[in-house]
Amino acid sequence: MSRLQLKGVGKSYGATKALRHADLDIEAGEVHVLMGSNGSGKSTLSKIVAGSVRPDTGEILLDGKPVSITGPQAARRLGIAIFYQELSLAAHRTVAENICLADLPSRGVFVDRTALEARAAKYIALFDGVTGDDFSPDAVVQDLRADQRQLVEIMKTLAGEASVLIFDEATSALDRAQVERFFEILRDLKRQGRSIIFISHRMDEIFAIGDRATVIRDGEIVGSRQIAGTTPAEIISMMVGAQEETATVADAAPARPAGPPVLSVRGLTGPGFSDIGFDVRAGEILGFGGLHGQGQSAVLRALFGANSPTAGSVELGGKPLHPKNPRATIRQGVAYVSGDRSRDGVVSGRPILENVMPIHYLRERMMLANPSALAAKALPALQALKTKFAGLGHPISSLSGGNQQKVVIARWLIDRPAVLLLDDPTKGIDLSAKADLFSLIRKLAGEGMGIVLYASEDAELLDNADRILVFNGGAIRRELTGAARTRFNLYQAAYEAA
Question: How far apart are the C-alpha atoms of 360 and 356, rounded to whole Å?
Answer without folding.
Answer: 9
